[in-house]
Amino acid sequence: MEYTLILTILVVIFALGFDFINGFHDTANAIATSVSTRALKPRVAILMAACMNFVGALTFTGVAKTITKDIVDPFALQNGSLVILAALLSAIIWNLVTWYFGIPSSSSHALIGSIAGAAISAAGLTILNYAGFIKILEALLISPFLALAVGFLMMSLFKVLFKNTSLYGTNKGFRIFQIGTAALQSFTHGTNDAQKAMGIITMALISAELQTSDDIQMWVRIAAATAMGIGTSIGGYKIIKTVGGKIMKIRPINGAAADLSSALIIFGATTIHLPVSTTHVISSAIMGVGSAQRVKSVHWGVAKKIVITWIITLPISALLAAVIYRMLSLFF
């Protein structure tokens, strides 16, 4: 019992660490467009995002419940705390590597791939809840394409609505409007991304027989929301630079269209209790907006590198988690 309790405490610590890293890794995406268009100063944008992420994280729990039970059954997982600890270490390592190089990779892919990899390493392929796992993968796969399409349509609509407005007037109005869209984007980010750490902690509590249902306890919600809020307050300037400027040159009208499009997709996923990659959604929305503006305005070379990172994240994190589990099992 003492051994299980120690592992559970470690899981809680590393889960909050993952949420903290997620805060400065992924939230950079949520405010990148508003910073790049100078709608908000970086420090103001980061503080606003931290507050909105905290509020969003406390508002919903559906995604957390999906993470808790739809990848593997926590009630059937033997040595579950060690499996979850290995998954967290793998996801944290991948997040830090991609953050260091300024690559907007997906924390969601990293975490979900890591859980699957560690669980398979511990109990074989039969441990996965394939119906739930495939549903999650479908959401992760479809959401970027939806964001691309919605971004294209949103920008096309804006072009029609404001075709007779002067460029100066349009930029000035949308720069103010972007303050609201950045806040909305940060809120929706909190409603989806912060839920993942909550789900992980709940998995560990169930595995350690400290909880008998998949309900998310209030202390878990507050702790995860706080960790993400603090992480957000530190900021991720390298990723802001990539998302906010290297995909395309963003004007205020482009930024507002991208923010609204991605917020719509992320919040839609939250309402049906599905985790999506906020990184994928936001980057895809920017590509869609850029394509509607002018296809050649998108820096497709940078976009290609981002897409390649998306593709390799899940298998690499799964393999890394499997190796880490085997190493940890030698000591525990």
TrEMBL record:
Q: Where in the cell is it found?
A: Membrane
Which residue spans traverse the membrane? 6-24, 44-63, 83-103, 110-133, 139-162, 306-328
Tell me a Gene Ontology molecular-function term this record carries.
Answer: phosphate transmembrane transporter activity
Q: Which coarse location class describes where this protein primarily resides?
A: membrane
Does the keyword Chaperone feature in the UniProt annotation?
Answer: no
Q: Under the cellular component aspect of Gene Ontology, which terms does the record hold?
A: membrane
Entry superkingdom: Bacteria
Pfam families referenced in this protein's UniProt entry, alphabetically: PHO4
InterPro entries referenced in this protein's UniProt entry, alphabetically: Phos_transporter (IPR001204)
Which keywords describe this protein according to UniProt? Membrane, Transmembrane, Transmembrane helix, Transport
Please verify whether the record's keywords include Transport: yes
Q: How does it sit in the membrane?
A: Multi-pass membrane protein
Q: Name one GO biological process term.
A: phosphate ion transmembrane transport
What PANTHER family does the record tag this protein with? PHOSPHATE TRANSPORTER
Protein name, as recorded: Anion permease
Look up and give the organism this protein is from. Answer: Psychrobacillus glaciei
